[in-house]
């Protein structure tokens, strides 16, 4: 594992098989490359938030809605779980190749 890189915030709970696979891929990638995954943002160090499609569509709990609102207010990019693996690979190509 490499030195701590930053945080990826996870919002929601994936419900379909593809979302579960992508969620697992993000968590695995993060662990392999020194990124912390968290459900909360405490100090604004999050690089982005990985969000389920249900949360993005507003079909979620009040807590998930509040988390998404707080992330957006803080200026933290929120990306859907289906787009997350490609986003990480494009943003950090050298890390993606080393996995």
Task: Itemize the secondary structure elements and their pairings.
Elements (H helix, E strand, L loop, with lengths): L5 E6 L5 H16 L2 E4 L7 E6 L1 H4 L5 H12 L3 E4 L3 H8 L1 H6 L1
Parallel strand pairs: 1-2, 1-3, 3-4
Q: What can you see in these coordinates?
A:
With 99 residues, the chain is α/β, with parallel strands linked by helices. The protein has one domain (6-98): Rossmann fold (3-Layer(aba) Sandwich), CATH 3.40.50. It is built from 5 helices and 4 strands. It has helices spanning 17-32, 53-56, 62-73, 84-91, 93-98; strands at residues 6-11, 35-38, 46-51, 77-80. It has a 4-stranded parallel beta sheet, with helices on both faces. It starts with 5 loop residues before the first strand and ends with a helix. The model has no long low-confidence stretch (mean pLDDT 83).
Main traits of this protein?
99 residues; single chain; 4 strands; 5 helices; Rossmann fold; alpha/beta; globular
Series of H and E elements: EHEEHHEHH
Could you state the oligomeric state of the chains shown?
Answer: single chain
CATH architecture: 3-Layer(aba) Sandwich
- Broad shape: globular
Gyration radius over CA: 13 Å
Numbering strands along the chain, what is their spatial order in the largest sheet? Answer: 2-1-3-4
For the secondary structure, the number of strands is 4
- CATH class term: Alpha Beta
- Low-pLDDT residue intervals, each spanning 5 or more residues: none
Provide the β-strand percentage band: 15-25%
The fold-level CATH name is: Rossmann fold
The number of helical elements comes to 5
**Percent helix range:** 40-55%
């Amino acid at each position: 594992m490499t030195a701590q890189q930053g945080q990826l915030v996870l919002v929601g709970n994936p419900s379909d098989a593809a979302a579960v696979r992508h969620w697992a891929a993000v968590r695995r990638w993060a662990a392999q490359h020194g990124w912390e995954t968290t459900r909360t943002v405490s100090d604004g160090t999050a690089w982005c938030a990985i969000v389920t499609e249900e949360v993005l569509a507003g079909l979620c709990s009040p807590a998930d809605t509040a988390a998404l609102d707080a992330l957006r207010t803080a200026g933290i990019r929120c990306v859907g779980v289906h787009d997350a693996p490609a986003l990480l690979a494009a943003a950090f190509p050298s890390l993606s190749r080393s996995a």
